[in-house]
Specification:
Layout: H1 8-27, H2 34-46, E1 48-53, H3 58-71, E2 79-84, H4 87-100, E3 107-110, H5 113-121, H6 134-142, E4 153-158, E5 161-165, E6 192-194, H7 200-211, H8 216-224, E7 229-231, H9 234-243, E8 248-252, H10 254-263, E9 271-273, E10 280-281, E11 283-289, H11 296-307, H12 309-319, E12 322-323, E13 346-347, H13 359-370
Parallel strand pairs: 1-2, 1-3, 6-7, 10-13
Antiparallel strand pairs: 3-11, 4-11, 4-12, 5-8, 5-9
């Protein structure tokens, strides 16, 4: 399913959209909830907030921070810090900080239900009083996502999709509708194997596909036969696709394609992405404020911002992700890059928390092929 058909003019319009979304926060400042109003003076006194996550690009962070500060009148001295690491690294750092009782971050946002469930049981998070979560809870529940309000919310989600460069040799007529398409013999030397040992979300995707009857071990053997490069993060993988070093990545994000098209609009003609008929695993990203964090009230206010329409606008504009915000309309400029999950087979897990027990076996099976 080829999703990217935007001509140069549309891609240029997308580049302008980020400026529009930067300004949206100020327009709604008069519509603050009682919870936001109560948190503002406390957050302003704290003077900073740090969020650790694997997702927010520089584009998103550069828009999110100023809009957050402007919406709540936090002042020019307030510091917004975006710390981005891999999914496993995010969880590892925060788990270590919880155990040590010494914190450098305030908010964690990552897709890791088992971690959040464990941390809630140990009283590791601040209690939230959200004026916006009620607008997300219904759709999050319907799509089978994990959350544990009032400690953990799920503001957004993403799903791994095939991304390819149609301008590379042999790729002009290529398209992806199923997993069989990404392991064709003609793709030898053109593929990437996502390193699932370093990623919770890659591993979760494998577990979900297996639960739904897909033979991942047979698939790994077919992927191995294409002589793939092993790589972890979506950004370097996307650069491999763009440069034709490896013109196909079976698991990337449409948002990463979108971010590169913002920088070079001509890429809209050649960077394509699709979906899998076997199913798309929707990976909700949970968020919480750490108990003992240096700026807990600013952290709570940041979560409110992420759950608000203004915060959602910036997230969608920067990352082209999925939101659970009720009655939310995807902006036209980014709509071609956001999968319409209502038209796809969307999958989750029978037990998001219990799936942690299967991680080692899943990764060991992958390691037999790619290490």
């Amino acid at each position: 399913m080829d999703q990217v058909r935007a001509p140069r003019a549309q891609a240029m319009a997308i580049a302008l959209a980020t400026c529009v979304f930067c300004a949206t926060a100020a327009a709604a400042a008069a519509d603050l909830t009682p919870q936001e109003k109560a948190l503002i003076p406390l957050a302003k006194k704290e003077g900073a907030v740090t969020i650790i996550n694997p997702q927010f690009s520089d584009l998103t962070a550069n828009n999110l921070g100023p809009a957050f500060i402007k919406r709540y009148g936090l002042g020019p001295e307030f510091r917004f810090n975006n710390l981005r690491k891999g999914t496993g690294q995010v969880v590892s750092q925060v788990r270590q900080e919880i155990r040590a009782g010494r914190f450098t971050v305030d908010v964690i946002a990552v897709s890791s239900p088992a971690f959040f469930d464990e941390a809630v049981k140990h009283g590791a998070f601040e209690r939230l009083d959200s004026g916006y979560w009620k607008n997300h809870e219904e759709l999050a529940r319907k799509s089978g996502q994990y959350f544990e309000y009032p400690y953990v919310v799920t503001p957004f989600a993403y799903t791994f999709q095939p991304v390819w460069n149609s301008a590379c040799p042999g790729m002009a007529n290529f398209r992806v509708d199923s997993y069989d398409d990404v392991v064709q013999s003609s793709l030898k030397g053109k593929t990437i194997a996502s390193d699932i040992t370093k990623s919770i979300t890659y591993t979760t995707t494998v577990i979900s596909l297996t639960e739904h009857g897909f033979d991942m071990n047979a698939f790994w053997d077919k992927l191995k036969a294409t002589d793939p490069i092993v790589e972890f993060r979506t950004e370097p993988k996307m650069q491999m696709v763009i440069s034709c070093q490896r013109p196909l990545d079976m698991w990337n994000l449409s948002g990463r394609a979108y971010q590169n098209i913002l920088k070079k609009p001509e890429l809209a003609k050649i960077i394509k992405f699709g979906s899998y008929k076997e199913g798309q695993v929707l990976l909700g990203n949970q968020a919480a404020v750490l108990k003992g964090a240096p700026h807990p009230n600013a952290g709570k206010l940041l979560i409110e911002f992420l759950l608000s329409k203004e915060g959602t606008d910036i997230m969608i504009a920067g990352e082209a992700m999925q939101t659970f915000l009720k009655n939310y309309a995807i902006p036209d400029v980014v709509k071609p890059y956001v999968l319409d999950v209502s038209k796809l087979k969307v999958m989750g897990l029978k037990d998001w928390v219990g799936a942690q027990d299967r991680v080692k076996d899943v990764r060991d099976a992958w390691l037999k092929r790619f290490r």
